[in-house]
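Methods: example folding runs. The two proteins below were folded one after another, and each record is reproduced exactly as written to the output file, sequence line first and structure-token line second.
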Amino acid sequence: MRNFAPQSKQFDEREITRDQRDFSGGMISDLHPSNIPQNAVADLENYIAFPDRLETRKGSQLFTATTLPTIATGYSWTKATNIITKTVGTDFTASDVGRYIIHDSGLHERIITYTDATHVVVDSSTAVAASTAGKIRGRICSMAQHPSLGTICIHLGGRLYTAPNTMAAWTRAFCCSTQDLPESLSTLWFYDNFIFIFTASGIFKADLSLSPILYYQINSACPSTLIT
């Protein structure tokens, strides 16, 4: 039997390096404390157990500060409740429904209703200051990374963009067929150096090893009704 002696967390942390050198048992959280082996620890927080030591968790790191490409820029607008009123910039259209407003503060809000050329309704009533450099971007329809080339591909709105694995910058790929990508959810699939984009409007294909990258539709629309 061990005598119970309450002690502080700081004291316990000092005891880790003083009394325990073997952590090969890792972390065990599903046993009673009395049954945990001498080479294991329980309920680690912000520590990683290695066979011979504990290391603090390094935390999270920003991968990239590169912003998503936009469809239109140069807007000035104000917001009242969830209504955006444009004073400068390209007129709103019904096609903007599903796209995103980007305020000067960086806040993104999805457009849910088109009212007229100068008014749209967004999905949030969060108060935000007026913008003088507002932007609009498309919805993210799909995004994936090529397993060997490392190229990151994103179907954003009705456009295809690529970026290196560092995501330092986005490069737009251009359509060279009559039918362009729709603004709807899609699936990306890679084979060799090619990317295939499966959409409700058909399948599109591009060679990611070429520059510039051009994509085109390779077949008719995918079936949208069940086969009986």
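Second run, written to the same file directly after the first:
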Amino acid sequence: GNAYSNLENYTQAIADYDKAIQLDPNYAYAYNSRGTIYGSLQNYNQAIADFYKAIQLDPNYAYAYFNRGTAYGESQNYTQAIVDFDKVIQLDPNNSSAYYSRGLTYGYLQNYNQAITDFNKTIQLDPNNSLAYNNRGITYFNLQNYTQAIADFDKVIQLNPNDGAAYQVRGFAYQMLGNNARAQADFAKAKSLGVK
């Protein structure tokens, strides 16, 4: 099932996970793995059901909580997603992905200060996580803290010089600060990297 999953042959992967569950109905890993496939297929209700079963079988299965939180997030059930990411962090306090995903979720809820707190923790645990800098920069932009947004996009660009979107948003931040020359330079660079 894992091999088929890696090959993106999801139908066969599900069939094998079904068989694993048939052979061992208490195999939490198989439910979690099948749920991941359903998530990839955007069948979030089925994914959540499988993650729920995996958690029922193994209440300390941090990865199943993380996956269920992600599925809830994709379903725009952000409150429940946060509950699951909270549980991951309780079980694994150094799980940078859980802080990052919870930060994104707080951002969707426009709880920007909490989002920044989570992105700060993500960066503390994973200093080269360009996505955390990027999303913290967007959050600072939403809070109209353009100077801090620029600092974060500087870091994104340092980590990934070909990130055209980072140049574009940094350009908007410079524009908001009235620095049109820097803004135009960033817009030109973003366009050269394929950003429209």
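Comment on the second run: The two ends are 40 Å apart (CA to CA).
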